[in-house]
Amino acid sequence: MALLEVDDLTVQFYTEDGVVRAVDGFSYEIERGETFAIVGESGAGKSVASLSLLRLIERPGEIVDGEIRFRGRDVLGFSQDELRQFRGNDAAIAFQNPEAMLDPVYTVGEQIVETMRAHDIATGEAARDRAISLLERVDIADPESAYTDYPHELSGGMAQRAVIATALSCDPDLLILDEPTTGLDVTIQAQLLETLTDLAETFDTAIQLVTHDLGVVADCCDRALVMYAGRAVERAPVEELFYDPSHPYTAGLLASIPRIGDGRDRLPAVPGSPPDLVQVPTGCRFHPRCPYAEDVCATRDPKLVELETGNPVPDGRRPDHASACHEHTGNLEGGLDYEVRIVDDRGNDSTDSSGQDGAVSDGLDGAESDGQTDDETAPDDPETGGDHGERSR
Ligand code: SF4
């Protein structure tokens, strides 16, 4: 049994413009000690999915369908007492804006101690010692001083670390981090990601990382799920996602990652913008932005299928690699013709000319989906065809 199992989760918001289905039939699972990423653009539903885990969706939002099980227990069926115990002791969340999570009128130490007291973890001197130890564990240079600091006295990176220390104070098995590195400079980002990886190993804590940044995913995650317009479009171990992206949206996101030594004048971007979730496109939700779209894409909704079998992912089964594109059920006539090039840190292309998996010898940090387009095979529409990487399988 996985630590966390989410099955067919569906979350709606009732707005003046209509019903927004922010998360639509979303399923995944996280094992103990695993670092799992949910990736997508703003508005994809990543944060709503995370808030749902702790039942933090408020009106006009509502979880309308699905199941959330934590160690086999039905989270959506918890009483208020069970829910209070679950939040903090079993699962904790840290948002991207630490200033909003820290109360400006209490010191950092008081806030960590209060969290532990409220969850019957520790009080008095024991709580103080544990708080300082946690601040040290998240690599705050002077934890004793940070303990007595007010939030406004901390830098952005330190405040984010203090929030993570607070979230860890009740020793949860699952830590949900919503865009933890947004707004931090790249050096601090790298340090924080190293700290998170270290924490996950030391405490055997599972991490659900919500991010729009695939670079962050490459640095510290085991598996990832790519989300588009409320749905999962691809899920895979991180190395496979980078070396062999199987959905055009994932390939587009990878092609847009900047890298050292990048010779491109402009970074390619996924053309267009995410759909209005009140009126989602028919068929494949990505079809208005997809350079490989065919008629079938506008009428038939592609299911998430296992690449190995081409069959829908069964309930409760963890697929190695799954994707929601008609290519993988044999319904796309033209196919996906981008290719993935593996480029090392010096800019050398080390992709084996056979294009076969396993020919890649460089580390994950060197992976990228190249932004070049094959003129012979690119779609005619320059609006959608010019910005995607090549693919050949
Ligand atoms: S189903 Fe069609 S529109 Fe959707 S990603 Fe695949 S090719 Fe593109």
TrEMBL record:
Organism: Natrarchaeobius chitinivorans
Disordered: annotated segments: 307-333, 345-393
Subcellular location: Cell membrane
PROSITE patterns noted in UniProt: ABC_TRANSPORTER_1 (PS00211), ABC_TRANSPORTER_2 (PS50893)
Compositional bias segments (type: Basic and acidic residues): 315-330
Membrane topology annotation: Peripheral membrane protein
This protein's name: ABC transporter ATP-binding protein
Compositionally biased residues, Acidic residues: 365-384
Superkingdom in the source lineage: Archaea
Any single Gene Ontology cellular-component annotation: plasma membrane
Pfam families in alphabetical order: ABC_tran, oligo_HPY
Alphabetized UniProt keyword annotations: ATP-binding, Cell membrane, Membrane, Nucleotide-binding, Transport
